[in-house]
């Protein structure tokens, strides 16, 4: 943003008003056209391009967008940031039909049990990752049983990926892209920032009080780990529930530990990354107030991170195999 006049023209819209302003196909077409253009577009060119004969009507629709989504400069109309974000959101989901991928084997090891291959599928903007040899990490059905997962296929985890992310990629490439995308989102969320809108997140931890995993997943909570991390955005609809290791991903000492073991926490592309991170131990000293120690092990070395009720890491210990 430059110049005071631009700031003065900017308009702040309520969510209701923003939806109303976008609820017309000519207006959405205007945003798309300006999004595709490299430079400002003049009124007459824009109207010709969108094939709207009624100049008055076209002017009315343009007016509805001007101020918040688009701006008028001496050279013509161009997108403002909110308009760009609308186009980015539309294009991330805009593929000809909603893509799905039936369960497909990829050459990748299960980080729980070491079995290879694992299976991935894609629907509802999620890459599902399954093991056919072990009981997985999370129980439950995706989206309240909207999608049936056969009993012999157990859930390791789900990864978020917009439809645009699956287009032009093989199943394995889509899985790797989803892993990196989700890793970036996880770190942003663990830093207290909403990965969708940047607003403040409210975070909490929950503990299953009757946790037993003798038979794999817990009978009480249906998960492998008792301590779960939850975040909810104070502004948009984003929320996440995941194993607590996700929250610890921002800890410098844990990141150093991963790097010392040849793993890049910014670029998790190897099975070994998950093999170090996810078969971790949780030692619950107290539920209320919360006091838990999480221990990660790789190459005969381990690192223990203890958290208290503030959800902050209050102690870190690193032990080599020889000392244990
Ligand atoms: Zn497995
Ligand atoms: Zn449990
Ligand atoms: Zn948000």
Account of the 3D structure:
The protein has helices at 4-9, 15-22, 25-36, 43-50, 55-65, 81-93, 171-190, 245-248, 252-260, 271-277; strands spanning 70-73, 76-79, 101-106, 118-123, 126-131, 154-160, 201-207, 227-233, 239-243, 281-286, 291-298, 301-307, 313-320. Mean pLDDT is 85; it is low at 1-8 and 141-146. With 324 residues, the chain is α+β, with helices and mostly antiparallel strands. The chain has a four-stranded antiparallel beta sheet, covered by helices on one side. The protein has a four-stranded antiparallel beta sheet with strand order 10-11-12-13, with helices on one face. A three-stranded antiparallel beta sheet has the order 7-8-9. Bound molecules: zinc ion (3 copies).
Descriptive keywords:
single chain, WH-like_DNA-bd_sf, binds zinc ion, elongated, DUF7351, Arc Repressor Mutant, subunit A, four-stranded antiparallel beta sheet, 10 helices, alpha+beta
